Structure to design on (352 residues):
């Protein structure tokens, strides 16, 4: 049955890359009406002053965040603020009756002690954290549809967990054997703030690993694998910065309990994932490409095998700003609000 009127939506912290991508995608969502767009640094400016690409698409002014005012004018709020600030904003909005999709790490963790260990400060809203759902639809769709607060996953965990979930669910990851994740991200994943490593002369034509062994997306991957498997799965995760604007490419090495050919892996995935709307399963041995998902909510997945080793090689490609952030957030909103899951997200990737 069609809705009598659109859902009112706010974007809190709208002027970063993720916020801008939320605005771009929400313009094309026929089931929502954008009612509030906030920014502390750019309050008083128009959206088009910050994002010229959105001129004539969004006429709302940017305003400073006020939880009561936003909640009075929105049914759903996307919170795209830094860790800590997002925690407070999401709690205030949820307390005022809004559904919330938080794109920060503040509501992703089951255990507040893990959050504190990796982010350096205690979580201030344990009851709300207990009710929050980790927003990976390919794993937690049913719970997301009933949630009031969703912690949108990080970009790296999205690509890694989609690849690993079927093996984990079927008990095919060899107990005690580490999963090795070699992941590469475009520079937009570092955010819109200026920093020397992300300047064009510094990053162009270069490749570097960063935050080796201490990237904050690692505990998300460990947590979610632990929820899917009966045994603990060690994770070795190394992210890399690559000279492209968008995209995440994950190459994942996993030892299985029995030898599996690429054909067998992909057959398992076709059965396990069924008709997932945003997952495109490739032919055995075929590699995904970041360019093939650019600007879209798709995740492309391929598999190969390391002959005579008992290891499988999984590969995923996503757009870090869409399936890795804003698009997945809208996918979660669709589930929370009873929209078709693909609404506002069905446009194909941009190429070239």
């Amino acid at each position: 049955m069609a809705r009598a009127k659109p859902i009112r939506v706010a974007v809190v912290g709208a002027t970063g890359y993720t916020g801008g991508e939320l605005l771009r995608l929400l313009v094309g969502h026929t089931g929502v009406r954008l009612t509030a767009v906030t920014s502390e640094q750019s309050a008083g400016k128009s959206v088009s002053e910050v994002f010229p690409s959105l001129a004539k698409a969004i006429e709302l002014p940017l305003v400073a965040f006020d939880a009561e005012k936003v909640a009075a004018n929105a049914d759903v709020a996307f919170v795209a603020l830094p860790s800590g600030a997002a925690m407070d904003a999401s709690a205030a909005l949820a307390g005022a009756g809004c559904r919330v999709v938080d794109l920060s790490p503040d509501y992703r963790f089951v255990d507040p002690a893990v959050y504190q260990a990796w982010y350096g400060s205690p979580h201030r809203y344990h009851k709300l954290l207990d009710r929050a759902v980790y927003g990976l639809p390919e794993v937690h769709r049913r719970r997301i549809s009933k949630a009031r607060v969703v912690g949108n996953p990080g970009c790296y965990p999205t690509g890694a967990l989609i690849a690993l979930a079927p093996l984990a669910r079927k008990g095919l990851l060899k107990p005690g054997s580490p999963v090795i994740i070699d992941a590469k991200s475009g520079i937009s994943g570092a955010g819109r703030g200026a920093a020397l490593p992300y300047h064009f002369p510094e990053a162009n034509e270069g490749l570097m690993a960063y935050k080796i062994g201490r990237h904050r997306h690692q505990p998300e991957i460990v947590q979610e694998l632990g929820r899917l498997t009966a045994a603990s799965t060690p994770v070795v995760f190394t992210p890399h910065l690559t000279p492209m604007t968008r995209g995440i490419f994950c190459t994942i090495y996993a030892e299985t309990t029995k030898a599996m050919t690429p054909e067998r892996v992909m057959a398992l995935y076709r059965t396990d994932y069924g008709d997932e709307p945003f997952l495109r399963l490739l032919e055995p041995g075929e590699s995904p490409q970041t360019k093939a998902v650019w600007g879209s909510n798709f995740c492309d997945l391929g598999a190969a095998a390391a002959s005579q080793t008992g290891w499988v090689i999984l590969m995923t490609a996503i757009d870090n700003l869409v399936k890795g952030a804003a698009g997945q957030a809208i996918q979660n909103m669709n589930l929370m609000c009873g929209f078709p899951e693909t609404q506002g997200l069905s446009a194909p990737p941009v190429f070239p």
